């Protein structure tokens, strides 16, 4: 059984590492790969006349990059974007099937979102969190409209990590308990408790918060439970979780924190009954259930929330990324009534200078309205069920290097293997070379560990999917391990 996601190769950091590695592998002279220069929206982005090499070197000389060795980084500089397309300073254009770090759910430069932010900028560019603000209230109302019955308030944060941080804090305060259980093969953010709740290698050098316990979740392709069917995997994963709860002492456990669909760790859609089974365990032991919808939420899975497909009601929901297509940094916690009211007569000991920043709030309002008006979530569901999903399954059947295709909506993973029989993961330098090749063919992929994640905007068109599929197919056809 492979355990690579628990060790030094697992994470979205490879996206950034691979940019450097891939350009090195492909272009020994250090030049950026050349993408197709087809016609498209006028860019105006090369107005300063600088090349990729100049902007990339300038950036790397003064910007300290995330999750990377800093020496030798050659970030691919992006100059502009429109919808599903981005372009660099050399005029190369790419289909953005990474949605950056899986957040441009409505694509780049969506006119309604830009207009919403611009209008707010002209009215009140900033305000302290203690003041009331109409745009902020509207953002909260639109988010609550998508939550299940019984959710009442939204606490805004700067992003996904601090959303999880504050959800954990709320669960600890209302239960009076400390421990938080979360999955191996998960990512919850890069702050104190969130990084220690994370179940990949990034936790290990940052393990300074206390009260965190990890367990294995369902992942049939590399089952920890010797299961051979989704039903077995589900039942055994739930048994393992309940035994972990009992062994840790239920009276010490404040919360179970789970990504509804683990994203960076491999887009592992839980088998039917798993999330509702976790809810039942939480109910048996008075534990709060926090579902992390930072990556999976707001249309990514073809549902407003990924858990909508799973007959489960959490106590706290965390969000960020897709809620506003990532145009302004923001995240938050959606709070159920009982937890919200627990702080009616008791101070909540938490806050952020930019909590509910009006530019972020305006971007949420505009994004939420655009998603509803344009049927973007329904589009993601249709694309996943009728277009992208079936075509990726076909791609998997055609190319031996694709060990498993899994996902839903516009949230798909191609798990790459050196050997389909043993399922030995494809080594990361080979994945980086494949990533580089995809870029040179005009597609910006999301590559992590031994996987390519196919994660276009939720409003992607059939035509863009067809063009992307042709590029994936060409790259896999040309691929030599
Ligand atoms: C599921 C999940 N939770 C939390 C986070 C952290 O969000 P942020 O980077 O905005 O702090 C991420 C980021 O990728 C994520 O995918």
From TrEMBL:
<dbReference type="InterPro" id="IPR049704">
    <property type="entry name" value="Aminotrans_3_PPA_site"/>
</dbReference>
<dbReference type="InterPro" id="IPR005814">
    <property type="entry name" value="Aminotrans_3"/>
</dbReference>
<dbReference type="InterPro" id="IPR015422">
    <property type="entry name" value="PyrdxlP-dep_Trfase_small"/>
</dbReference>
<protein>
    <submittedName>
        <fullName>Taurine---2-oxoglutarate transaminase</fullName>
    </submittedName>
</protein>
<dbReference type="GO" id="GO:0030170">
    <property type="term" value="F:pyridoxal phosphate binding"/>
</dbReference>
<feature type="region of interest" description="Disordered">
    <location>
        <begin position="1"/>
        <end position="51"/>
    </location>
</feature>
<dbReference type="GO" id="GO:0005829">
    <property type="term" value="C:cytosol"/>
</dbReference>
<feature type="compositionally biased region" description="Low complexity">
    <location>
        <begin position="20"/>
        <end position="42"/>
    </location>
</feature>
<dbReference type="GO" id="GO:0008483">
    <property type="term" value="F:transaminase activity"/>
</dbReference>
<feature type="compositionally biased region" description="Polar residues">
    <location>
        <begin position="1"/>
        <end position="12"/>
    </location>
</feature>
<keyword id="KW-0663">Pyridoxal phosphate</keyword>
<dbReference type="InterPro" id="IPR015421">
    <property type="entry name" value="PyrdxlP-dep_Trfase_major"/>
</dbReference>
<comment type="similarity">
    <text>Belongs to the class-III pyridoxal-phosphate-dependent aminotransferase family.</text>
</comment>
<dbReference type="Pfam" id="PF00202">
    <property type="entry name" value="Aminotran_3"/>
</dbReference>
<dbReference type="InterPro" id="IPR015424">
    <property type="entry name" value="PyrdxlP-dep_Trfase"/>
</dbReference>
